[in-house]
């Protein structure tokens, strides 16, 4: 569980340290600005930047029922973050599974990615696509 938040905590702690150093150097405006930058980075690297994650089994059941794709991801993955923000509001239409939170999700990714936990991995209609084309996924979400 803590692994999901490690980068977030690290970014926030670095921001506080930089801000304190700037305050000690009598530069509070610079310290405040840098703190805000680090906190924004911490938010982007956190699980909060993604739609609510569900368990792999729940995502598989829901996908079978509604035909929407399952996106396997993990916090701190820059490719997952790029995919998430390129989808915009369409991201809510997919079923998101955090592989660091759900061991069954990690196992599902390893099964289709030659034993690696390569994310993002999208499963749609029984077909898995590792590191999918963003335009392709947007089109799949629009049509589902």
UniProtKB/TrEMBL annotation:
GO terms for biological process: cell redox homeostasis. Pfam families: Glutaredoxin (PF00462). GO terms for molecular function: electron transfer activity. Residues 71-128 form the Glutaredoxin domain. Coiled coil: none annotated. Keywords: Membrane, Transmembrane, Transmembrane helix. The chain crosses the membrane at residues 31-50. SUPFAM superfamilies: Thioredoxin-like (SSF52833). This is Glutaredoxin. It comes from Micromonospora cremea.
């Amino acid at each position: 569980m803590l692994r999901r938040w490690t980068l977030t905590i690290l970014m926030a702690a670095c921001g506080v340290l930089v801000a304190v150093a700037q305050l000690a150097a009598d530069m509070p405006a610079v310290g405040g600005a840098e703190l805000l930058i680090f906190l924004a980075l911490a938010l982007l690297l956190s699980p909060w930047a993604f739609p609510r994650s569900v368990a792999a089994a729940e995502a598989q059941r829901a996908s079978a029922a509604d035909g929407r794709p399952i996106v396997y991801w993990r916090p701190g993955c820059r490719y997952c973050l790029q995919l998430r923000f390129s989808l915009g509001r369409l991201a809510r239409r997919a079923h998101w599974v955090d592989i660091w939170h759900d061991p069954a999700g990690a196992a599902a990714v390893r099964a289709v990615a030659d034993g690696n936990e390569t994310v993002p991995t999208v499963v749609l209609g029984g077909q898995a696509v590792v590191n999918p084309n963003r335009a392709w996924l947007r089109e799949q979400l629009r049509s589902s």
